[in-house]
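Below sits my pick:
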Amino acid sequence: MQRPDFISRIKAAFEVTPIVALLGPRQCGKTTLAKQYVSSVNSPDINYFDLEDPDDLARLEHPKLTLSGLKNLITLDEIQRLPEIFPLLRVMVDNKKLEQKYLILGSASRELLQQTSETLAGRISYIELTPFSMVEVNNLQQLWLRGGFPLSYLAHTDEVSYSWRKEYIRTFLERDMQMMGINVSPENLRRFWMMLVHYHGNIFNASEIGRSLNISHPTAKNYLDILTHTFMIRELKPWFENISKRQVKSSKIYFRDTGIMHSLIGIKDESDLKLSTKLGASWEGFALEETIRHIAPDPLDCYFWATQADAELDLLILKDGKKLGFEFKYSDLPKVTKSMHIALSDLHLEQLVVIYPGDKQYQPHEKIFVCGLETFLRNGNHF
Protein backbone atom coordinates (compact mmCIF):
# COMPACT_ATOMS: atom_id res chain seq x y z
CA MET A 1 0.00 0.00 0.00
CA GLN A 2 1.11 3.52 -0.80
CA ARG A 3 1.29 5.97 2.12
CA PRO A 4 1.52 9.36 0.37
CA ASP A 5 1.00 11.43 3.52
CA PHE A 6 4.14 10.01 5.11
CA ILE A 7 6.10 10.41 1.86
CA SER A 8 5.16 14.10 1.88
CA ARG A 9 6.17 14.45 5.53
CA ILE A 10 9.61 12.93 4.82
CA LYS A 11 10.14 15.30 1.89
CA ALA A 12 9.13 18.29 4.01
CA ALA A 13 11.43 17.20 6.85
CA PHE A 14 14.42 17.01 4.50
CA GLU A 15 13.79 20.63 3.58
CA VAL A 16 14.57 21.49 7.21
CA THR A 17 17.28 19.03 8.31
CA PRO A 18 19.78 16.74 6.55
CA ILE A 19 18.82 13.75 8.72
CA VAL A 20 15.30 12.37 9.06
CA ALA A 21 14.51 9.63 11.57
CA LEU A 22 11.55 7.42 10.75
CA LEU A 23 10.59 5.74 14.02
CA GLY A 24 7.90 3.17 14.76
CA PRO A 25 7.25 -0.38 15.96
CA ARG A 26 8.79 -3.31 14.14
CA GLN A 27 6.80 -4.54 11.13
CA CYS A 28 4.76 -1.34 10.82
CA GLY A 29 6.05 -0.66 7.29
CA LYS A 30 9.13 1.53 7.82
CA THR A 31 11.33 -0.36 5.33
CA THR A 32 8.61 -0.41 2.68
CA LEU A 33 7.97 3.30 3.12
CA ALA A 34 11.69 4.12 2.98
CA LYS A 35 12.03 2.27 -0.32
CA GLN A 36 8.95 4.05 -1.67
CA TYR A 37 10.50 7.37 -0.69
CA VAL A 38 13.83 6.48 -2.34
CA SER A 39 11.94 5.63 -5.54
CA SER A 40 10.01 8.90 -5.40
CA VAL A 41 13.13 11.12 -5.27
CA ASN A 42 14.84 9.39 -8.22
CA SER A 43 18.19 9.44 -6.50
CA PRO A 44 21.03 8.40 -8.85
CA ASP A 45 22.63 6.47 -5.99
CA ILE A 46 20.86 3.94 -3.79
CA ASN A 47 22.80 3.51 -0.57
CA TYR A 48 20.78 1.23 1.69
CA PHE A 49 22.14 -0.45 4.81
CA ASP A 50 20.06 -2.98 6.75
CA LEU A 51 21.81 -3.18 10.10
CA GLU A 52 20.26 -6.57 10.83
CA ASP A 53 22.05 -7.95 7.75
CA PRO A 54 25.53 -9.25 8.71
CA ASP A 55 26.90 -8.22 5.31
CA ASP A 56 25.71 -4.62 5.72
CA LEU A 57 27.06 -4.52 9.26
CA ALA A 58 30.41 -5.72 7.93
CA ARG A 59 30.38 -2.90 5.34
CA LEU A 60 30.09 -0.45 8.23
CA GLU A 61 32.87 -1.96 10.30
CA HIS A 62 34.83 1.16 9.35
CA PRO A 63 31.87 3.54 8.98
CA LYS A 64 33.71 6.77 8.20
CA LEU A 65 35.67 5.15 5.41
CA THR A 66 32.54 3.58 3.93
CA LEU A 67 30.20 6.56 4.24
CA SER A 68 32.73 9.14 3.03
CA GLY A 69 32.68 7.53 -0.40
CA LEU A 70 28.89 7.86 -0.79
CA LYS A 71 26.74 10.69 -2.09
CA ASN A 72 23.14 11.84 -1.99
CA LEU A 73 20.66 9.85 0.12
CA ILE A 74 21.86 7.16 2.52
CA THR A 75 19.39 4.93 4.38
CA LEU A 76 20.29 3.17 7.64
CA ASP A 77 17.66 0.64 8.70
CA GLU A 78 17.31 -0.51 12.35
CA ILE A 79 19.61 2.26 13.56
CA GLN A 80 19.30 1.20 17.21
CA ARG A 81 21.65 -1.67 16.33
CA LEU A 82 24.51 0.79 15.79
CA PRO A 83 24.05 3.73 18.20
CA GLU A 84 27.77 4.54 18.13
CA ILE A 85 27.34 5.84 14.58
CA PHE A 86 25.38 8.94 15.66
CA PRO A 87 28.41 11.20 16.40
CA LEU A 88 29.83 10.27 12.99
CA LEU A 89 26.60 11.28 11.24
CA ARG A 90 26.99 14.77 12.69
CA VAL A 91 30.47 15.02 11.19
CA MET A 92 29.29 13.71 7.81
CA VAL A 93 26.35 16.09 7.35
CA ASP A 94 28.39 19.05 8.58
CA ASN A 95 30.83 18.41 5.72
CA LYS A 96 28.98 20.27 2.98
CA LYS A 97 31.30 18.91 0.29
CA LEU A 98 29.83 15.43 0.75
CA GLU A 99 26.26 16.62 0.00
CA GLN A 100 24.80 13.77 2.03
CA LYS A 101 21.35 13.22 3.50
CA TYR A 102 20.45 10.39 5.85
CA LEU A 103 17.15 8.58 6.30
CA ILE A 104 17.47 6.52 9.46
CA LEU A 105 14.90 3.93 10.53
CA GLY A 106 14.44 2.75 14.10
CA SER A 107 12.18 0.54 16.18
CA ALA A 108 12.77 2.50 19.36
CA SER A 109 11.41 5.86 20.43
CA ARG A 110 13.26 9.15 20.33
CA GLU A 111 13.71 8.95 24.11
CA LEU A 112 15.37 5.54 23.82
CA LEU A 113 17.70 6.84 21.11
CA GLN A 114 19.03 9.57 23.36
CA GLN A 115 22.26 9.79 21.42
CA THR A 116 20.45 11.47 18.53
CA SER A 117 19.10 14.31 20.62
CA GLU A 118 22.51 14.85 22.20
CA THR A 119 24.74 14.71 19.12
CA LEU A 120 22.41 15.63 16.25
CA ALA A 121 20.56 18.61 17.70
CA GLY A 122 19.47 20.92 14.90
CA ARG A 123 20.38 18.36 12.26
CA ILE A 124 17.60 15.78 12.65
CA SER A 125 13.82 15.65 12.28
CA TYR A 126 11.64 12.89 13.73
CA ILE A 127 8.64 11.27 12.10
CA GLU A 128 6.67 8.55 13.84
CA LEU A 129 5.30 5.93 11.46
CA THR A 130 2.29 4.15 12.89
CA PRO A 131 0.63 0.96 11.71
CA PHE A 132 -2.28 1.57 9.31
CA SER A 133 -4.84 4.13 10.44
CA MET A 134 -8.50 4.49 9.51
CA VAL A 135 -7.86 7.12 6.83
CA GLU A 136 -5.55 4.66 5.01
CA VAL A 137 -7.90 1.67 4.92
CA ASN A 138 -11.55 1.07 4.12
CA ASN A 139 -12.72 -1.27 6.85
CA LEU A 140 -12.95 0.20 10.35
CA GLN A 141 -14.27 -2.99 11.94
CA GLN A 142 -11.39 -5.05 10.55
CA LEU A 143 -8.87 -2.44 11.65
CA TRP A 144 -10.29 -2.45 15.17
CA LEU A 145 -10.25 -6.25 15.41
CA ARG A 146 -6.91 -6.99 13.74
CA GLY A 147 -5.02 -3.78 14.43
CA GLY A 148 -3.03 -1.85 11.86
CA PHE A 149 0.18 -3.83 11.41
CA PRO A 150 0.21 -4.40 7.63
CA LEU A 151 0.65 -8.18 7.66
CA SER A 152 -2.07 -8.50 10.30
CA TYR A 153 -4.61 -6.17 8.69
CA LEU A 154 -4.04 -7.52 5.15
CA ALA A 155 -4.14 -11.23 6.12
CA HIS A 156 -6.56 -13.39 4.11
CA THR A 157 -8.49 -14.52 7.17
CA ASP A 158 -8.96 -13.57 10.82
CA GLU A 159 -7.25 -16.84 11.77
CA VAL A 160 -4.12 -16.01 9.76
CA SER A 161 -4.09 -12.50 11.22
CA TYR A 162 -4.39 -13.83 14.76
CA SER A 163 -1.56 -16.34 14.19
CA TRP A 164 0.67 -13.61 12.78
CA ARG A 165 0.11 -11.42 15.84
CA LYS A 166 0.81 -14.28 18.26
CA GLU A 167 4.11 -14.90 16.49
CA TYR A 168 4.86 -11.16 16.46
CA ILE A 169 4.43 -11.03 20.24
CA ARG A 170 6.66 -14.07 20.74
CA THR A 171 9.40 -12.66 18.50
CA PHE A 172 9.14 -9.24 20.14
CA LEU A 173 9.71 -10.76 23.58
CA GLU A 174 12.30 -13.41 22.74
CA ARG A 175 14.37 -11.72 20.03
CA ASP A 176 13.67 -8.02 19.58
CA MET A 177 14.30 -7.10 23.20
CA GLN A 178 17.78 -8.65 23.11
CA MET A 179 18.60 -7.06 19.74
CA MET A 180 17.76 -3.65 21.21
CA GLY A 181 19.99 -4.32 24.20
CA ILE A 182 17.08 -4.62 26.65
CA ASN A 183 17.88 -7.35 29.15
CA VAL A 184 14.60 -8.54 30.68
CA SER A 185 12.95 -11.90 31.23
CA PRO A 186 10.64 -12.61 28.25
CA GLU A 187 8.23 -14.52 30.49
CA ASN A 188 8.03 -11.77 33.11
CA LEU A 189 7.52 -9.06 30.48
CA ARG A 190 4.81 -11.16 28.83
CA ARG A 191 2.94 -11.56 32.13
CA PHE A 192 3.21 -7.83 32.74
CA TRP A 193 2.00 -7.08 29.21
CA MET A 194 -1.01 -9.32 29.65
CA MET A 195 -1.77 -7.70 33.00
CA LEU A 196 -1.88 -4.30 31.29
CA VAL A 197 -5.00 -5.40 29.39
CA HIS A 198 -6.88 -4.89 32.66
CA TYR A 199 -5.42 -1.37 33.01
CA HIS A 200 -6.17 -0.35 29.41
CA GLY A 201 -7.87 3.06 29.61
CA ASN A 202 -7.25 3.29 33.36
CA ILE A 203 -4.76 4.76 35.81
CA PHE A 204 -1.49 2.82 35.94
CA ASN A 205 -0.71 1.71 39.48
CA ALA A 206 2.85 0.34 39.59
CA SER A 207 2.58 -0.78 43.22
CA GLU A 208 -0.67 -2.66 42.64
CA ILE A 209 0.52 -4.44 39.51
CA GLY A 210 3.85 -5.16 41.20
CA ARG A 211 2.10 -6.95 44.06
CA SER A 212 0.00 -8.96 41.61
CA LEU A 213 3.08 -10.16 39.72
CA ASN A 214 5.46 -10.30 42.70
CA ILE A 215 7.77 -7.70 41.21
CA SER A 216 8.99 -4.40 42.66
CA HIS A 217 7.49 -0.98 41.96
CA PRO A 218 10.62 0.15 40.00
CA THR A 219 10.54 -3.05 37.93
CA ALA A 220 6.89 -2.50 37.01
CA LYS A 221 7.70 1.08 35.97
CA ASN A 222 10.71 -0.13 33.96
CA TYR A 223 8.55 -2.68 32.12
CA LEU A 224 6.04 0.05 31.28
CA ASP A 225 8.84 2.26 29.97
CA ILE A 226 10.07 -0.57 27.74
CA LEU A 227 6.63 -1.12 26.19
CA THR A 228 6.12 2.62 25.84
CA HIS A 229 9.47 3.25 24.13
CA THR A 230 8.87 0.36 21.70
CA PHE A 231 5.47 1.82 20.69
CA MET A 232 3.36 -0.95 22.21
CA ILE A 233 1.75 1.15 24.97
CA ARG A 234 0.73 4.81 25.07
CA GLU A 235 1.28 6.46 28.43
CA LEU A 236 -0.89 9.55 28.77
CA LYS A 237 0.57 11.93 31.32
CA PRO A 238 -1.83 13.88 33.58
CA TRP A 239 -2.47 17.54 32.86
CA PHE A 240 -2.33 19.96 35.79
CA GLU A 241 -4.43 23.10 35.66
CA ASN A 242 -3.89 26.01 38.04
CA ILE A 243 -7.06 25.39 40.05
CA SER A 244 -7.74 24.68 43.71
CA LYS A 245 -9.15 21.18 43.09
CA ARG A 246 -7.07 18.08 43.84
CA GLN A 247 -6.03 16.57 40.53
CA VAL A 248 -4.96 13.03 39.59
CA LYS A 249 -1.17 12.77 39.32
CA SER A 250 -0.70 9.27 37.86
CA SER A 251 -0.63 8.31 34.17
CA LYS A 252 -3.26 6.44 32.16
CA ILE A 253 -2.21 3.71 29.76
CA TYR A 254 -3.62 2.40 26.47
CA PHE A 255 -2.61 -0.30 24.04
CA ARG A 256 -1.58 1.50 20.88
CA ASP A 257 -2.70 -1.38 18.63
CA THR A 258 -5.95 -3.14 19.49
CA GLY A 259 -4.95 -6.16 17.42
CA ILE A 260 -2.04 -6.82 19.77
CA MET A 261 -4.29 -6.33 22.78
CA HIS A 262 -6.88 -8.74 21.39
CA SER A 263 -4.23 -11.40 20.75
CA LEU A 264 -2.97 -11.23 24.31
CA ILE A 265 -6.45 -12.08 25.67
CA GLY A 266 -7.46 -14.58 22.99
CA ILE A 267 -9.90 -12.52 20.89
CA LYS A 268 -9.66 -14.17 17.46
CA ASP A 269 -12.65 -12.86 15.53
CA GLU A 270 -15.58 -10.45 15.63
CA SER A 271 -17.72 -12.89 17.57
CA ASP A 272 -15.11 -13.12 20.35
CA LEU A 273 -14.84 -9.34 20.41
CA LYS A 274 -18.58 -8.77 20.79
CA LEU A 275 -18.73 -11.19 23.72
CA SER A 276 -15.66 -9.78 25.47
CA THR A 277 -15.95 -7.85 28.72
CA LYS A 278 -13.27 -5.55 27.23
CA LEU A 279 -15.45 -4.55 24.26
CA GLY A 280 -16.15 -0.96 25.35
CA ALA A 281 -12.66 -0.30 26.68
CA SER A 282 -11.12 -1.73 23.49
CA TRP A 283 -13.21 0.55 21.26
CA GLU A 284 -12.51 3.64 23.35
CA GLY A 285 -8.76 3.01 23.21
CA PHE A 286 -8.98 2.39 19.47
CA ALA A 287 -10.86 5.67 18.96
CA LEU A 288 -8.38 7.59 21.13
CA GLU A 289 -5.39 6.31 19.17
CA GLU A 290 -7.04 7.06 15.83
CA THR A 291 -7.87 10.58 17.00
CA ILE A 292 -4.27 11.29 18.02
CA ARG A 293 -3.00 9.98 14.68
CA HIS A 294 -5.54 12.10 12.82
CA ILE A 295 -4.71 15.38 14.58
CA ALA A 296 -0.97 14.56 14.60
CA PRO A 297 0.15 16.67 17.58
CA ASP A 298 3.57 16.48 19.12
CA PRO A 299 3.41 13.31 21.31
CA LEU A 300 4.43 15.43 24.29
CA ASP A 301 1.29 17.56 23.84
CA CYS A 302 -1.19 14.75 24.60
CA TYR A 303 -2.63 14.43 28.11
CA PHE A 304 -5.62 13.32 30.11
CA TRP A 305 -7.11 15.26 33.01
CA ALA A 306 -8.98 14.19 36.12
CA THR A 307 -9.77 15.48 39.59
CA GLN A 308 -10.20 13.55 42.82
CA ALA A 309 -13.88 14.58 42.67
CA ASP A 310 -14.43 12.45 39.53
CA ALA A 311 -14.40 15.18 36.89
CA GLU A 312 -12.27 14.00 33.97
CA LEU A 313 -11.35 14.35 30.31
CA ASP A 314 -10.19 11.35 28.29
CA LEU A 315 -7.84 13.29 26.04
CA LEU A 316 -6.45 16.83 26.06
CA ILE A 317 -4.43 17.92 23.03
CA LEU A 318 -2.47 21.14 22.79
CA LYS A 319 -2.34 22.22 19.15
CA ASP A 320 -1.57 25.61 17.62
CA GLY A 321 -1.97 27.35 20.95
CA LYS A 322 -5.41 25.82 21.58
CA LYS A 323 -6.69 23.28 24.08
CA LEU A 324 -8.79 20.60 22.39
CA GLY A 325 -10.76 18.15 24.54
CA PHE A 326 -12.03 14.69 23.58
CA GLU A 327 -14.28 12.14 25.23
CA PHE A 328 -14.77 8.61 23.88
CA LYS A 329 -18.08 6.88 24.55
CA TYR A 330 -19.04 3.39 23.43
CA SER A 331 -22.78 4.14 23.43
CA ASP A 332 -25.66 4.84 21.05
CA LEU A 333 -26.17 8.59 21.56
CA PRO A 334 -23.88 10.16 24.16
CA LYS A 335 -25.29 12.88 26.39
CA VAL A 336 -23.62 15.92 27.85
CA THR A 337 -22.48 15.21 31.41
CA LYS A 338 -21.61 17.38 34.40
CA SER A 339 -18.00 16.26 34.01
CA MET A 340 -17.90 17.71 30.47
CA HIS A 341 -19.13 21.09 31.68
CA ILE A 342 -16.50 21.09 34.44
CA ALA A 343 -13.74 20.23 31.94
CA LEU A 344 -14.85 23.02 29.60
CA SER A 345 -14.84 25.55 32.41
CA ASP A 346 -11.75 24.50 34.37
CA LEU A 347 -9.52 23.82 31.37
CA HIS A 348 -10.77 26.70 29.17
CA LEU A 349 -11.18 24.34 26.22
CA GLU A 350 -11.50 25.65 22.68
CA GLN A 351 -13.91 22.79 22.02
CA LEU A 352 -14.85 19.38 23.37
CA VAL A 353 -15.59 16.59 20.89
CA VAL A 354 -17.45 13.50 22.05
CA ILE A 355 -16.63 10.60 19.73
CA TYR A 356 -18.82 7.47 19.59
CA PRO A 357 -19.42 4.50 17.21
CA GLY A 358 -22.52 5.92 15.52
CA ASP A 359 -22.95 8.03 12.39
CA LYS A 360 -24.90 11.08 13.63
CA GLN A 361 -23.33 14.47 14.23
CA TYR A 362 -24.89 17.08 16.48
CA GLN A 363 -24.04 20.00 18.76
CA PRO A 364 -25.73 19.86 22.17
CA HIS A 365 -23.74 22.83 23.53
CA GLU A 366 -21.98 25.88 22.17
CA LYS A 367 -18.58 24.22 22.52
CA ILE A 368 -19.51 20.51 22.66
CA PHE A 369 -19.78 18.46 19.46
CA VAL A 370 -20.88 14.82 19.21
CA CYS A 371 -19.54 12.96 16.20
CA GLY A 372 -19.19 9.37 14.99
CA LEU A 373 -15.60 8.14 14.82
CA GLU A 374 -15.61 7.38 11.11
CA THR A 375 -17.24 10.73 10.28
CA PHE A 376 -14.68 12.56 12.41
CA LEU A 377 -11.73 10.83 10.75
CA ARG A 378 -13.06 11.19 7.19
CA ASN A 379 -14.27 14.78 7.43
CA GLY A 380 -11.60 16.30 9.62
CA ASN A 381 -11.89 18.04 12.94
CA HIS A 382 -13.43 21.35 11.87
CA PHE A 383 -16.95 21.99 13.16
About this structure: The chain has two domains: 4-128, 134-379.
